[in-house]
Amino acid sequence: MTRAPIQGPAVTLVIGSGSVKCAAAIGVVKALSDVGIGIDRVVGCSGGALFAAGVAMGFDAATMADITVRTWTRRVTSKRNRMGFLRLLAPRLFGFKAESFGLRDDAPMLAAFRAVFGDQRIEDTPIPLHITATDFQNGELVEITRGDLVEAIRASASLPLAFAPVKLGDRLLIDGYMADPLPVSVAMKSGSRVIVAVGFESPYQSNIRSAGRFAAQLSAILANNLLRSRLAFQSAAHHGEMILILPEFKQRVGLFDTSKVPYLIQEGEQAALQQLPYLHALLNAERERLEAVTA
Amino acid sequence: MQINITQHDTIFVLAITGSIDSLNADELSQGFAASIAQGHVRLVADFSLVNYTSSAGLRSLLGTVKSCRLAGGDLRMASVQPQVQRVLDIAGFTSILNIFPDVRHAVESFTEAA
Questions:
Q1: Domain B2-113 has CATH 3.30.450.40
Q2: pTM for this one?
Q3: Is residue A196 less than 8 Å (CB to CB) from chain B?
């Protein structure tokens, strides 16, 4: 599919991992769109992949909010994978296999994603879309720009231990946040100059009284340190401008707190509105620079 | 963005006002570079009136810190506001920058180290 070049000022949007909190990106897109700033490319990781896909499809804020409420529910993780538990408890007896190990059945999640996106292919989205995942064999960041959209989102959101890795081509893929929770590098490699990056820190556990919360705390420590170190490198290396939007939520937001979606959107929109005066000035300067280069 | 320079013995304090972004980061880098070129490599950046910094601002700080340290000095930060501190934190810059609660502490830190 040949995509029409975007008219007018535009930015590249990167949406990092952050489960339902990624709904804040809907507010960011709304704030940009309301003042005529387009999106020329979108990158999504883990929970952010779902929202990046919506942006790439050209869905408006109301549609994306509706998709979030319908797809990001507790139901998608409610079904246990019994064989996964048996393989965890008795790996030799039940034959442990990395490629199929997950404690939750992914069928409800796949059905929810398929109901929204059908058989959409990534290369056919109106706005160029990059979804990131992590290669289970070597930890490399994998950029998915072709193929079945639902499979790519599922791979990007393969929360370790909960959902089995996804086999795509000759790679076994796990959650994108394991390689980079906010993959700005993907936008940089594509040549994007003005990047709006919407990122989220993983919440630390306040009351650790189970192995699950203990594991969540370890994961949050690693993810947040990875976020900082990757951003440090990318900030130093970027040839253009990266505008970080890091919404801070005063209300506690659970993994599947879809009742908070309107609040998340509002917070994302407010955070983006604060950046608009600078973004306008920056995009004007970019336009003048390009006109000078092409004159 | 405005830069106001004052001297405290051998230490130059650059009080910056406004946002630091790609539209003015070069100006800031040049302000720092002018001080370094004159041999003033013990610098304090007073951030009490800086309300925003983008990745371009971070690159300007990083370049100046490297130049100062290569010449045996340092760029130290003072009075960083919470919204800027958050950007420095999440971009990992607090692990390599010396940050002080106010200009006096930042200036005194050079004397203590000497």
A1: no
A2: 0.89
A3: no
